[in-house]
Amino acid sequence: MKSAVETLNPTRVRLTVEVPFEELKPSLDAAYKKINQQVTVKGFRQGKIPARVIDQRFGRGAVLEEAVNDALPKFYTEAVNEGELNVLGQPEVDITELKDGELLAFTAEVDIRPALEIPDYSGIEVEVDAVEVSDEDIDKSVEQLRERFATTAPVERAAQDGDVLTLNLEAKVDGEVLEDGVAEGVTYTVGSGELLDGIDEAVTGVAAGGEATFTSELKGGSAEGKEAEVKVEVTEVKSRELPELDDDFAQLASEFDTLEELRADSRKRLEQMKKYDQATQAQEKVLDELLKLVEVPMPEKLLADEIETRKHNLVNHQLGQMGLDLAKYLEIQGKSEEEFDAETKEQAEKGIKTQFILDELVNKEKLNVSQEELTEHLMRRAQSSGMSPDQFAQAVVEGGQVPMLVGEVARGKALAVVVEAATVKDSNGEVIDLDDEDETAETVVAEAEGTEVEAADEKPEA
């Protein structure tokens, strides 16, 4: 077999391949065997039909087509390896010559990863928020905990802000009660804004047994988006009582004996959270600066496929689970379709660039992924997906996604190397040490990439 590589642009090549006909013999034999198992000819047992009879009855062309389709992936792969190409996606194959007994020639156009030059990145400098926990932050944290231990008790008075009510609702559109517009025994906290616009004003001042009517735009159901007349009946009013902020509360809500110890623990936890956020912010900003340093030619077909994948995932998975279509989503977001398309393209380009650049750094820095690192990453991914580690691992293996996880870890390590070389200062001008924050890099990389961009390994067909 002879092959040659023609560079069409920095991200696409054309392979020209010539195969002596004798190299097709294994595929021709396989084609005759396959056809033998699929057809019957009077006078011959199935599987024992001579090749010349198959040629006469079904045509030599059918045999050649079967043989070529069987052989193409092998010859294509050999040509790719011979040219030392890092291909992306499926090739576009065109058979240029097929002479029975003499020659098979074909071309294959395919996208490749562009060659990248990674410049010195040690000069990158970014600023992040300082880790500062105020007394107000601690007060808010303790108050949120206090809210969780609130109790309710029925009261014989009109409803007011913060009360927990039991309601019956009836919605009418154009004077007709909607089939799905009646609900009984609904629990609602006045002021939460969780039901319908206007309900807080309607129920405030209404005691148990009273009712009120208001108009509101329906947020779901058969008449979603329409103005409805809603009748609300208050069947019970409960006041919320918060526990006193004292040592007894600390013992009730935590493992601590005093409120002072509880507040100290809240400060510690808030500092840890802000340090994590600070590390994530640093990773994101360093990545953005790195992307500015490297010129990345963009494979057009890969970009188009990535954009389509992102749209598909949004519409069929995320929005589908929320009961929304793209038009409603854009309306809620206040975006035009053109703005959405532009943002999706920008995100797809960033994802592809991120992977290309960090993969190049993985090779340049000779970074490897240990079994322990892969396992730890798998555990984190399982936790974020809501699956058990065993379930997630099984799904990854069955889906052939182990290389994807290895790539995420490796690229996270590459980004951590860049962050370590960069200068990261907080808003107070203090230099921040982020050497121990490698795992945040994996999260930042995964978010930047969005949908995984993989070098496909599909078999081409004529």
UniProtKB/TrEMBL annotation:
GO terms for biological process: 'de novo' cotranslational protein folding; cell division; protein transport; protein unfolding. It catalyses: [protein]-peptidylproline (omega=180) = [protein]-peptidylproline (omega=0). Keywords: Cell cycle, Cell division, Chaperone, Cytoplasm, Isomerase, Rotamase. PROSITE patterns: FKBP_PPIASE. Its main location: cytoplasm. Its EC number is 5.2.1.8. Pfam families: FKBP_C (PF00254), Trigger_C (PF05698), Trigger_N (PF05697). Transmembrane segments: none annotated. Consists of 3 domains; the N-terminus binds the ribosome, the middle domain has PPIase activity, while the C-terminus has intrinsic chaperone activity on its own. Belongs to the FKBP-type PPIase family. Tig subfamily. PANTHER family: TRIGGER FACTOR CHAPERONE AND PEPTIDYL-PROLYL CIS/TRANS ISOMERASE (PTHR30560), TRIGGER FACTOR-LIKE PROTEIN TIG, CHLOROPLASTIC (PTHR30560:SF3). Involved in protein export. Acts as a chaperone by maintaining the newly synthesized protein in an open conformation. Functions as a peptidyl-prolyl cis-trans isomerase. This is Trigger factor.
